[in-house]
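Researcher: Please translate sequence to structure tokens.
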Amino acid sequence: MVDLATVSPAIALGPLDGRYRAAAAPLVNYLSEAALNRARLRVEVEWLIHLTDHRVLPGAPTLSDAEKTYLRGVVDSFGATEIAELAEIEAVTRHDVKAVEYLLKRRLDAAPDVLGATALPEMHEIVHIFCTSEDINNLAYALTIRDAVAQVWLPAARGLVDDLAAMAREHADAAMLARTHGQPATPTTLGKELAVLAHRLRRQATRVEAAEYLGKINGATGTFGAHVVAVPGADWEQIARAFVESLGLTWNPLTTQIESHDWQAELYADVARFNRIAHNLATDVWTYISLGYFRQRLSAQGSTGSSTMPHKVNPIRFENGEANLEISCSLLDTLAATLVTSRLQRDLTDSTTQRNVGVAFGHSLLAIDNIRRGLAGLDVDHSRLAEDLDATWEVLGEPVQQAMRAASVAGATGMADPYERLKELTRGKRVTAASMHEFISSLGMPADVEARLLALTPATYTGLAARLVGHLDD
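Model: Translation complete:
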């Protein structure tokens, strides 16, 4: 048999880089290994510029605008050539951050070819000065995760919320039999039930949008020890704070060798909660499909629902979404639990763990994509909704009972034991419109109350459900 591990181009082991590449591809620009290295390079470049701009190092030259543009261009042009070159360097250094440092030094040496006379080749010792690898890594991860969330995940999540909210508004008046514990219950509207899920998802997306991304650059054990010895006259706390904030991050003043990653745990908990609500959406819609409340449109291209049962149109988008959300949540939970712990001042468990952040977001993104596609292919079967409602007149036992209670309080006679009387009429029984009307007429209700109850049907017994959908616009 052919050794598939030797086939070129390389075959992806995981589905996000194989079968589902198209859905997850936008995250590559932020959460891949190459994107992490580009962000590391950016941090190294900006640290060099920051130190020279603020004249932190006595004797260091001040960079011209052209030299700064050149350095930032090294980051902007980072691509296939640099990825290959980094791999070559790391094969020697056996250290990923050191490889980035050496790559930048090579670009300093190459600067005269672009700029002519420049001091950049003499600035080797400023690259990575005062930095432990985690000073670079924590900032690079914060930048890439922040941008992945803002540029890719949140727009997709907001898109799902918007799709669902639009469906809720469209079907705000579509009366539907509710089911509590899987049994017929007080009717609602399809729009109101979708609005509940849209409202829940929106709250979590808002929490994610408000996430705080922390960073530090304070040396081997978070003490600025080497900084103070080498350049004692500098205000190192202010220098560090200004640098972290210049990247659009929140400065963390108290750390060990690592930034504590608590912000990551907070973010992943919120994303996982969004996932779990989306999972609830997927399973509820799947159930509505099985009840016939939704019909799935046939693909314009045609598709195979079952390999043996040609009549089937399977709700695969929702099943795929459900499974990928479970995978994403498992990874996010593990990331959140692992990253908040580091033995004493440093251990390396976070290093390999954080390499799975992209995988966790990728499965969530894939699930959101599937659910949105699934929702877009649904039509409401209003006749099926009406059929279920008309077959369950027993659900009117609740309003009749409550009307009896209210009438009794208002002074009407003959209203005793309303719950027990409705229980006798309805529990475990199929009630018809005729039998319900006969019961109502036998109660001796005040005329206005009786007329109101006789006019009631399961389809009109939806309370304020349709109006409540309007809260999506709050």
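Researcher: Any highlights?
Model: The chain has three domains: 21-126, 135-299+313-381, 393-457.
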